[in-house]
Fold:
Amino acid sequence: MAAVVESNAGTDRDRTTTAPSVTNTLTRLPKTLITPARMFFRVRRRWYLFRYPNLTMAQDVMVQGRLKIRGKTHVTLGSGIRIRQTVRVTGNGVLNVDKNTMLNGCWIIASSQVQIGENCLISDCGITDNDYHNLHPVDRHRKPTKKTRSPISIGSNVWIGLRSIVLKGTTIGDDSVIGAGSVVHGAIPSGVVAAGNPARIIKHFDN
Structure:
């Protein structure tokens, strides 16, 4: 779980965020297993880079589960990212995930662009920037227009609960939490808990 320390001075705000690192995770192992574990994850990273030409990952990404990328989706994984269970990515667009974020069994459709900030906890939820079908009944079975897709932006230190769905055009501010089973569309500000279908703010964190 990420921890946040904040200090306010006038109108300026200094913000420092820390999260468990891959190094800290490995040091919990017996000393005799640390080196073999590093070699294991290094080999896995190289295999995934060979398997998916449009994948870019930092040298310390830890794939503890499985990563499946379909189509020509461009995926960039920053330093210290942990992948658990099976993470599925598709859409032929762009997915960028910043450092120290954990992806835990989620599925992500990036037809245009999905941006996930640093130190996030992304549970086994769904994130999709595409409706894949036109909304109006007359156009529903016709070729989807550009209106069916819109980028998603998730800030830093965001926790998205299990079985939630984040829809196209959504923005979620830093330090916010999305409750389990929520359906999120639109703008969620920083420092709040939002839950429900549709997701509504139910709590503000004190500064």
Remarks:
- The first strand starts at residue 3 and ends at 9.
- The longest helix spans residues 31-51.
- Residues 106 and 197 are 19 Å apart (CA to CA).
- Residues 1-17 have pLDDT under 50 and may be disordered.
